[in-house]
Amino acid sequence: MxxxxxxxxxxxGQLLVVAAVVLLAAWVxxxxxxxxxRAALARFVARQDGWHRQAWPCGVQPDLLVGRFAxxxxxxxxxxxxxxxxxxxxxxxxxxxxxxxxxxxxxxxERRRRSHDNRGVRxxxxxxxxxxxxxxxxxxxxxxxxxxGPESLLGRIGLTRGxxxxxxxxxNRRFRVEGRDRELVVRLLDAQLQELLVxxxxxxxxxxxxxxxxxxxxxDHRDSSLAGIVGTYPAMVQDLARLVRDIPxxxxxxxxxxxxxAPPPHTPWER
Amino acid sequence: MDAWLVVVLPVVLLLVLVVVSYNRFIAQxxxxxxxxxxxxxxxxxxxxxxxxxxxxxxxxxxxERGVLEGVTAARARAxxxxxxxxxxxxxxxxxxxxxxxxxxxLAVTEAYPQLRSDAVFRDLQRQLVETEDRIAAARRxYNLExxxxxxxxxxxxxxxxxxxxDLQPRRMFEIRDPAAAHAxxxxx
Lengths: 271, 188
Prior knowledge:
The complex is a heterodimer.
Chain A: H1 2-47, E1 52-54, H2 62-65, E2 79-93, E3 96-116, E4 122-150, H3 153-156, H4 169-174, E5 175-179, H5 182-188, H6 191-200, E6 205-216, H7 233-245, H8 249-258
Antiparallel strand pairs in A: 1-2, 2-3, 3-4, 4-5, 4-6
Chain B: H1 2-58, H2 65-80, H3 88-109, H4 113-116, H5 119-154, H6 158-164, H7 178-182
């Protein structure tokens, strides 16, 4: 018994030392990676006129973003915004150059994973997942939200297709469109935009909620001079600008006509 | 008892499927009728706008009589061509005629800067574009409903139900996009 104690003592100590070295190495690597990302973010922000690092994308608290878009899910424990940068950007809205507030960021959330070992002991761990999002504050309100996201596997083969079905079968196979206002949906998704989404935005999500437009998912190209996810930010900004430019005029006109008109003067409740 | 179940259960299941399929056809037909009513309401709104638009233009360009009379005649033809008295294609052509007439009218107004800055005319033009946007959206919704209905009417096994209860085909409503023709031009 004494022998076992004396031999297991040094082994345990060695194991603890190895574990400590591994943890330290992991921490150092993680810190280096973070430092590289922060430096890349600083370089990206310096390139964009008027842009700066942000804690709240487009001035929206993460608590108000969570669950609002497909790209900002709640998860099972923690969630939040990482490496956010934003500022003014000139976009072509309804054919006119319009300066909007735009923000690129990484949304993280934690998913619970339960497992059982051989003895039936349950353990719970959390896996951190990340989504790339570019958010834009539009000058007009979409009072009824519209969501365009990737179609499920069964939907792609036509078994459980839901949401709004449009004219293009290839579009219906790739995207699921949800919206309370069908007229607004068809005004948004004209033939040209359906074609563009199929060609350049497959696998990504586009969502309108109030005056926010969120484009989620990674772009198909990146700036190799910027490290990590920050390298995708210029492409995300480009993709947003292209998408907004190709939104039909009829959609913007529908939002414009939805704007609340001023109340008539001398209404009873004002007296 | 078991043999009885083996015979009855498939029959009941088949009956349920037939009822579900038939009810879905009925829901689709109701939806087609509702979207068609929406098109008619928007077309009616456009017909109602035309006299005001003609009157507004007449105040500044009375000598453009040919164009003004052309629009008025096209409106009269569009109002007269209403299903079921005429086929849906004929109504579509009459509406195309009105779209063409309105295009000529709006082209004429380009030569009258005073008219184009007139608040009443600008408001009427805005209403016209808005109505034509709605016509375009309503037409697409109607055609999507018809396409979905026709797909089920022809596909197996729902075509068996459709032929058993003699469901008639529905026609698409194809007109020139008036919204594209009359919207203020902005580069895309």
